Amino acid sequence: MASHIVGYPRMGPKRELKFALESFWDKKSSAEDLKKVAADLRSSIWKQMSGAGIKYIPSNTFSYYDQVLDTTSMLGAVPPRYNWTGGEIGYDTYFSMARGNASVPAMEMTKWFDTNYHFIVPELGPDVKFSYASHKAVDEFKEAKALGVDTVPVLIGPVSYLLLSKPAKGVEKTFSLLSLLPKIIPIYKEVISELKAAGASWIQFDEPTLVLDLDSQQLQAFTAAYADLESTLSGLNVLIETYFADLTPEAYKTLIGLKGVTAYGLDLVRGTQTTDLVKKDFPKGKYLFAGVVDGRNIWANDLASSLSTMQALEAVVGKDKLVVSTSCSLLHTAVDLVNETKLDDEIKSWLAFAAQKVVEVNALAKALAGQKDEAFFSSNAAAQASRKSSPRVTNAAVQKAADALKGSDHRRATNVSARLDAQQKKLNLPILPTTTIGSFPQTVELRRVRREFKANKISEDDYVKAIKEEIKKVVNLQEELDIDVLVHGEPERNDMVEYFGEQLSGFAFTVNGWVQSYGSRCVKPPIIYGDVSRPKAMTVFWSSTAQSMTKRPMKGMLTGPVTILNWSFVRNDQPRFETCYQIALAIKDEVEDLEKAGINVIQIDEAALREGLPLRKSEHAFYLKWAVHSFRITNCGVKDTTQIHTHMCYSNFNDIIHSIIDMDADVITIENSRSDEKLLSVFREGVKYGAGIGPGVYDIHSPRIPSTEEIADRINKMLAVLETNILWVNPDCGLKTRKYEEVKPALNNMVAAAKQLRTKLASAK
What we know:
Layout: E1 2-4, H1 16-25, H2 31-51, E2 57-59, H3 67-74, H4 91-99, E3 109-111, E4 118-120, E5 123-124, H5 136-146, E6 151-156, H6 158-163, E7 166-167, H7 181-197, E8 202-206, H8 216-233, E9 237-241, H9 249-256, E10 263-267, H10 274-280, E11 287-293, H11 303-317, E12 322-326, H12 345-349, H13 354-368, H14 374-389, H15 396-403, H16 416-427, H17 444-454, H18 460-481, H19 498-501, E13 505-508, E14 515-518, E15 521-523, E16 527-533, H20 540-547, E17 555-559, H21 561-566, E18 569-570, H22 576-596, E19 601-605, H23 620-635, E20 643-648, H24 657-662, E21 667-670, H25 680-684, E22 692-695, H26 708-719, H27 740-764
Parallel strand pairs: 1-12, 2-6, 5-7, 6-8, 8-9, 9-10, 10-11, 11-12, 16-18, 17-19, 19-20, 20-21, 21-22
Antiparallel strand pairs: 3-4, 13-16, 14-15
Helix pairs in contact: 1-2, 7-8, 8-9, 11-13, 15-22, 17-18, 22-23, 26-27
Keywords: Amino-acid biosynthesis, Metal-binding, Methionine biosynthesis, Methyltransferase, Transferase, Zinc
Function: Catalyzes the transfer of a methyl group from 5-methyltetrahydrofolate to homocysteine resulting in methionine formation.
Cofactor: Zn(2+)
């Protein structure tokens, strides 16, 4: 019985790639240094999987930024603004597309399906001249082969690539991206031919868009693409990999009818109904790569249950055609549990990170082949039983409080228009008020202070003193820049979710449980293992301290319940909405304590609300109902004069704008600039928004500093579709990943643009 891994984390167990990338970007190391770190990581990953007994080991899943950008490079689909002149795409062009440069902005970045991973959105049109411009897939296959490891090269499939793209600026929004299939298929043929010549026997095409709601024309594109590729693929075993959800019956029928395809990879963790489709109709002689080991969470697999599933499938597919696999790439989980020295033994026994999931996949394959490791299965069963019965998982008081939420929609008593009037009387803000989203740059010194405090190398008094000094610096800077509503900069927080999870019950934390979000950006998701409650206040001290340093309004900064949920590894033994309601009650306690402490503006970030939207439209309404309700629970008890802000970033919001309005926040700040102001189109189309709104005026994920004129132009576009009295001026997102030498001039230009337009608006009256 064979085993397969869809993909593997690329950052390294200690974030080696992150540090190598940042050193290269800062010009502290060479391209050769970066290449060596990358090669060492790839070698380690391939050898680890080979040593664990995995038969189908992926290559070309390693990336310096993301796999969609790698495909854009492979196809030579570089937007003209980057002045690429042809040939093999180098680091300068590649990273300019990802991050922008001094003269041009980056390409749009958005979420990869419903994960916290991001990708760079291709910009395409009828005039794009495609060419084979990155040989990475072939180079990495050869690299593995030279190490004695035979791999399955992985490519983003041609149809998914186009469906994940957008029309370039100046191209009609109605332009059919799928019309470009005949132009990109020849490049795929070149890549496939080179892989065959290099000795590849299998090739994997990731076509995750097959799990979306696709129309007949989109499904037909898959049929056409693989029919066109069939002759080139002859002699290769071809795996089409899907993940993250069920396939519709129509999509499944399309998949199993594709020409030249040998095997189908299906997510049987999130795609629970797909198993029924397989049992009803599976093509004779084809392989099923059954994704029974969860690639998106960190819980140990229930091996007995998975073995039972595999045995049932074996009767349908045939013993020699069934392959044990992960549900998706392990990119979305942490790297190796071995590096966790501070987790207690009980919780640790419940977990499996990427390295452990590789072992689970192989153990299941061996068990199906009649070589069951009885001791391993017995240990797994004991851990499953321990988790179900552990008293630390349940809290009766929390469950009772969450149950009591039923029957109310938890809306504030007064409508938003009246609340904004009451808040303006108290806050006395100018039109086009300026603010930032929360965090300020996290300096090396600041990180050192936090690290030393956690390691007990400095006293609590020294830590508090250092953080207060940092807050004072941030407050003084904002006053100097003349920003209207201030933030304290969050110097006490390494991560917006981790910080809260550390102070809530029901959470566990890792030391090295890092997961890539985009580029070099890594997050360390907390683990929600039990019922959630707030033992004591979490932010009141720091927010009150910051407010005491200024007469201007100081925002209290919280992470909302839906974002904490979506950016954590969540318990899988109860519905997600039940856990979310528990978190909402904990945040509600904090909101009310901030208000009592004199904080009049409180931001409850829901950066990940859109991210959690199910991939199927039929499931949207239920998710949005409980997600929006959870947000309202957090602030339903505050006074009219307390202004509630929320923030959302880097997703497609237009299709959920009515749910965003239903959140009933007083002010929402939302990403806008990097997505080419896509958000504004909903207001042009007539959606009425009566609360305060701050579409981001510049992209913080790029080091580029926008000019005053550029920002003023953006604000003018907003004023064309939004009322002057509700518009706020702010960056797209928090500033923690930027440097002060970038932040100061950018914010200075932002404030100057707001003042310029205030003067213009006043003179026009």
